[in-house]
Amino acid sequence: MEYIYRFSQGLHLRQIDLMEDCVARTSTTLSRMNKLLRKVCIKALKNLKRRTGLRVGGKSRQKFVAIDESKFAHKRKFNRGRCCTTWQRRKGWVFGMMEVKGARRLPVLKMVKDRSRTTLMPIITRHIRRGSTVYSDNWRAYLNALQPLGYRHLTVNHSENFVDPQTGCHTQHIERAWLAIKAQVSRFRGNKTTKLLREHLKFIQWHYWLGRRNRKGALAQLIHDIRRTYRFRFH
Protein backbone atom coordinates (compact mmCIF):
# COMPACT_ATOMS: atom_id res chain seq x y z
CA MET A 1 0.00 0.00 0.00
CA GLU A 2 2.89 2.35 0.69
CA TYR A 3 4.25 1.71 -2.81
CA ILE A 4 0.80 2.16 -4.39
CA TYR A 5 0.44 5.49 -2.59
CA ARG A 6 3.84 6.75 -3.74
CA PHE A 7 3.20 5.56 -7.28
CA SER A 8 -0.20 7.31 -7.47
CA GLN A 9 1.24 10.61 -6.23
CA GLY A 10 4.06 10.58 -8.77
CA LEU A 11 6.68 10.62 -6.02
CA HIS A 12 10.33 9.68 -6.45
CA LEU A 13 10.58 5.90 -6.74
CA ARG A 14 14.31 5.31 -6.45
CA GLN A 15 14.68 1.69 -5.47
CA ILE A 16 17.48 2.32 -2.99
CA ASP A 17 15.29 4.83 -1.11
CA LEU A 18 12.30 2.48 -1.11
CA MET A 19 14.39 -0.38 0.28
CA GLU A 20 15.85 1.88 2.97
CA ASP A 21 12.26 2.83 3.93
CA CYS A 22 11.42 -0.91 4.14
CA VAL A 23 8.77 -0.67 1.41
CA ALA A 24 10.28 -3.82 -0.12
CA ARG A 25 13.37 -5.90 0.46
CA THR A 26 14.54 -6.45 -3.12
CA SER A 27 14.73 -4.46 -6.34
CA THR A 28 13.04 -7.38 -8.13
CA THR A 29 9.88 -6.88 -6.08
CA LEU A 30 9.89 -3.14 -6.70
CA SER A 31 10.36 -3.58 -10.44
CA ARG A 32 7.50 -6.09 -10.57
CA MET A 33 5.14 -3.77 -8.65
CA ASN A 34 6.04 -0.85 -10.90
CA LYS A 35 5.39 -2.91 -14.01
CA LEU A 36 2.02 -4.16 -12.75
CA LEU A 37 0.79 -0.72 -11.70
CA ARG A 38 1.92 0.83 -14.95
CA LYS A 39 -0.08 -1.79 -16.85
CA VAL A 40 -3.15 -0.98 -14.73
CA CYS A 41 -2.90 2.73 -15.64
CA ILE A 42 -2.31 2.01 -19.32
CA LYS A 43 -5.35 -0.27 -19.44
CA ALA A 44 -7.52 2.34 -17.71
CA LEU A 45 -6.39 5.00 -20.20
CA LYS A 46 -7.08 2.63 -23.06
CA ASN A 47 -10.63 2.05 -21.80
CA LEU A 48 -11.13 5.82 -21.49
CA LYS A 49 -9.86 6.31 -25.03
CA ARG A 50 -12.27 3.64 -26.28
CA ARG A 51 -15.20 5.52 -24.69
CA THR A 52 -14.23 9.14 -25.39
CA GLY A 53 -11.50 9.08 -28.03
CA LEU A 54 -9.34 11.32 -25.77
CA ARG A 55 -10.63 14.34 -27.64
CA VAL A 56 -9.82 17.84 -26.44
CA GLY A 57 -11.07 21.33 -27.19
CA GLY A 58 -14.48 22.50 -28.27
CA LYS A 59 -16.29 25.62 -29.45
CA SER A 60 -16.22 27.25 -26.01
CA ARG A 61 -14.06 30.40 -25.92
CA GLN A 62 -13.18 29.62 -22.27
CA LYS A 63 -10.72 26.96 -23.38
CA PHE A 64 -8.13 26.50 -26.07
CA VAL A 65 -5.74 23.79 -27.24
CA ALA A 66 -2.00 24.45 -27.39
CA ILE A 67 -0.02 22.22 -29.73
CA ASP A 68 3.73 21.73 -29.93
CA GLU A 69 6.43 19.15 -30.62
CA SER A 70 9.34 18.29 -28.36
CA LYS A 71 12.44 16.14 -28.70
CA PHE A 72 12.72 13.26 -26.25
CA ALA A 73 16.22 11.92 -26.78
CA HIS A 74 18.13 9.88 -24.25
CA LYS A 75 21.39 11.64 -23.38
CA ARG A 76 24.46 9.55 -22.79
CA LYS A 77 26.50 10.62 -19.79
CA PHE A 78 29.68 12.42 -20.90
CA ASN A 79 28.76 11.38 -24.48
CA ARG A 80 29.87 7.85 -23.72
CA GLY A 81 28.06 4.56 -24.08
CA ARG A 82 26.13 2.93 -26.89
CA CYS A 83 22.85 4.28 -28.26
CA CYS A 84 21.57 0.73 -28.77
CA THR A 85 17.74 0.76 -28.59
CA THR A 86 17.35 4.25 -27.17
CA TRP A 87 14.68 6.47 -28.67
CA GLN A 88 17.41 8.83 -29.90
CA ARG A 89 17.90 6.57 -32.89
CA ARG A 90 14.22 7.03 -33.85
CA LYS A 91 14.44 10.80 -33.71
CA GLY A 92 12.40 10.80 -30.46
CA TRP A 93 9.77 13.40 -31.35
CA VAL A 94 6.63 13.66 -29.21
CA PHE A 95 3.65 15.69 -30.44
CA GLY A 96 1.56 17.25 -27.69
CA MET A 97 -1.97 18.69 -27.68
CA MET A 98 -3.01 20.28 -24.39
CA GLU A 99 -6.47 21.58 -23.57
CA VAL A 100 -6.31 24.57 -21.23
CA LYS A 101 -9.37 25.72 -19.31
CA GLY A 102 -8.65 27.73 -16.20
CA ALA A 103 -6.42 25.56 -14.00
CA ARG A 104 -7.36 22.34 -15.81
CA ARG A 105 -4.93 20.69 -18.21
CA LEU A 106 -5.72 17.71 -20.44
CA PRO A 107 -2.77 16.55 -22.56
CA VAL A 108 -2.69 14.10 -25.45
CA LEU A 109 0.86 12.91 -26.11
CA LYS A 110 1.81 10.99 -29.25
CA MET A 111 5.17 9.65 -30.34
CA VAL A 112 5.74 10.51 -34.00
CA LYS A 113 8.36 9.51 -36.54
CA ASP A 114 8.67 13.06 -37.88
CA ARG A 115 7.04 16.50 -37.75
CA SER A 116 5.69 16.58 -41.28
CA ARG A 117 2.17 17.72 -42.19
CA THR A 118 1.18 14.23 -43.34
CA THR A 119 2.11 12.87 -39.89
CA LEU A 120 0.67 15.59 -37.63
CA MET A 121 -2.58 16.59 -39.36
CA PRO A 122 -4.35 13.20 -38.97
CA ILE A 123 -3.48 13.25 -35.25
CA ILE A 124 -4.87 16.76 -34.88
CA THR A 125 -8.16 15.97 -36.61
CA ARG A 126 -8.53 12.75 -34.59
CA HIS A 127 -8.01 14.30 -31.15
CA ILE A 128 -9.01 17.98 -31.43
CA ARG A 129 -12.68 18.79 -31.93
CA ARG A 130 -13.66 20.95 -34.91
CA GLY A 131 -14.37 24.54 -33.95
CA SER A 132 -11.66 24.57 -31.27
CA THR A 133 -9.29 27.48 -30.78
CA VAL A 134 -5.78 26.19 -31.41
CA TYR A 135 -2.60 27.97 -30.31
CA SER A 136 0.71 27.13 -31.96
CA ASP A 137 3.98 28.53 -33.20
CA ASN A 138 4.67 29.07 -36.90
CA TRP A 139 5.77 25.53 -37.65
CA ARG A 140 5.07 24.95 -41.35
CA ALA A 141 3.40 21.55 -40.84
CA TYR A 142 0.14 23.13 -39.65
CA LEU A 143 0.56 26.74 -40.75
CA ASN A 144 -2.37 27.75 -43.02
CA ALA A 145 -3.73 24.19 -42.77
CA LEU A 146 -6.01 24.24 -39.69
CA GLN A 147 -8.48 27.00 -40.54
CA PRO A 148 -9.74 25.25 -43.72
CA LEU A 149 -10.56 22.26 -41.50
CA GLY A 150 -12.79 24.28 -39.18
CA TYR A 151 -10.35 25.32 -36.45
CA ARG A 152 -9.74 28.82 -35.13
CA HIS A 153 -5.97 28.91 -35.46
CA LEU A 154 -3.85 31.55 -33.72
CA THR A 155 -0.06 31.61 -33.99
CA VAL A 156 2.88 33.27 -32.29
CA ASN A 157 6.20 33.99 -33.96
CA HIS A 158 8.80 33.00 -31.35
CA SER A 159 11.56 34.82 -33.21
CA GLU A 160 9.76 38.07 -32.36
CA ASN A 161 7.58 37.51 -29.27
CA PHE A 162 6.74 34.93 -26.64
CA VAL A 163 3.16 36.25 -26.62
CA ASP A 164 1.54 37.68 -29.74
CA PRO A 165 0.78 41.35 -28.90
CA GLN A 166 -2.39 41.44 -31.01
CA THR A 167 -4.11 38.11 -30.27
CA GLY A 168 -2.49 37.13 -26.97
CA CYS A 169 -1.59 33.74 -28.44
CA HIS A 170 1.21 31.85 -26.70
CA THR A 171 2.40 28.29 -26.15
CA GLN A 172 3.74 28.76 -22.62
CA HIS A 173 1.34 26.27 -21.04
CA ILE A 174 2.54 23.33 -23.10
CA GLU A 175 6.17 24.46 -22.95
CA ARG A 176 6.02 24.42 -19.14
CA ALA A 177 4.34 21.02 -19.36
CA TRP A 178 7.23 19.67 -21.46
CA LEU A 179 9.67 20.57 -18.66
CA ALA A 180 7.55 18.76 -16.05
CA ILE A 181 6.97 15.72 -18.29
CA LYS A 182 10.65 15.35 -19.15
CA ALA A 183 11.61 15.67 -15.50
CA GLN A 184 9.12 12.94 -14.60
CA VAL A 185 10.29 10.64 -17.40
CA SER A 186 13.93 11.08 -16.34
CA ARG A 187 13.05 9.88 -12.82
CA PHE A 188 11.66 6.58 -14.08
CA ARG A 189 14.02 3.64 -14.15
CA GLY A 190 14.75 2.04 -17.51
CA ASN A 191 13.62 5.07 -19.53
CA LYS A 192 15.90 4.42 -22.50
CA THR A 193 13.74 2.40 -24.88
CA THR A 194 10.99 3.55 -27.21
CA LYS A 195 8.54 1.10 -25.65
CA LEU A 196 9.14 2.36 -22.12
CA LEU A 197 8.94 6.00 -23.19
CA ARG A 198 5.54 5.28 -24.75
CA GLU A 199 4.41 3.63 -21.47
CA HIS A 200 5.65 6.58 -19.40
CA LEU A 201 3.74 9.01 -21.60
CA LYS A 202 0.57 6.97 -21.16
CA PHE A 203 0.99 6.95 -17.38
CA ILE A 204 1.43 10.74 -17.39
CA GLN A 205 -1.77 11.06 -19.42
CA TRP A 206 -3.54 8.76 -16.93
CA HIS A 207 -2.52 11.15 -14.16
CA TYR A 208 -4.05 14.16 -15.93
CA TRP A 209 -7.18 12.50 -17.37
CA LEU A 210 -8.08 10.19 -14.47
CA GLY A 211 -5.91 10.67 -11.40
CA ARG A 212 -6.33 14.43 -11.04
CA ARG A 213 -9.99 14.44 -12.04
CA ASN A 214 -11.08 11.98 -9.35
CA ARG A 215 -12.59 14.08 -6.55
CA LYS A 216 -11.11 11.67 -3.98
CA GLY A 217 -7.62 11.91 -5.42
CA ALA A 218 -5.21 9.91 -7.56
CA LEU A 219 -4.86 7.14 -4.96
CA ALA A 220 -8.61 6.47 -5.04
CA GLN A 221 -8.53 6.36 -8.84
CA LEU A 222 -5.61 3.95 -8.88
CA ILE A 223 -7.30 1.59 -6.42
CA HIS A 224 -10.47 1.78 -8.52
CA ASP A 225 -8.50 0.85 -11.65
CA ILE A 226 -6.73 -2.00 -9.83
CA ARG A 227 -10.09 -3.40 -8.80
CA ARG A 228 -11.43 -3.18 -12.36
CA THR A 229 -8.32 -4.86 -13.76
CA TYR A 230 -8.30 -7.70 -11.20
CA ARG A 231 -12.02 -7.71 -10.41
CA PHE A 232 -12.30 -11.52 -10.51
CA ARG A 233 -9.73 -11.81 -7.74
CA PHE A 234 -11.83 -9.69 -5.39
CA HIS A 235 -14.79 -12.08 -5.42
From TrEMBL:
Fetch the SMART domains from UniProt: DDE_Tnp_IS1595
Which InterPro entries does UniProt cross-reference here?
Answer: IS1016-like_transposase (IPR053164), Tnp_ISXO2-like (IPR024445)
| Domain of life from the UniProt record | Eukaryota
Using the record's annotation, list all stretches that form the ISXO2-like transposase domain.
55-209
NCBIfam families with a match to the protein in the record:
transpos_IS1595
Q: What is the name of this protein?
A: ISXO2-like transposase domain-containing protein
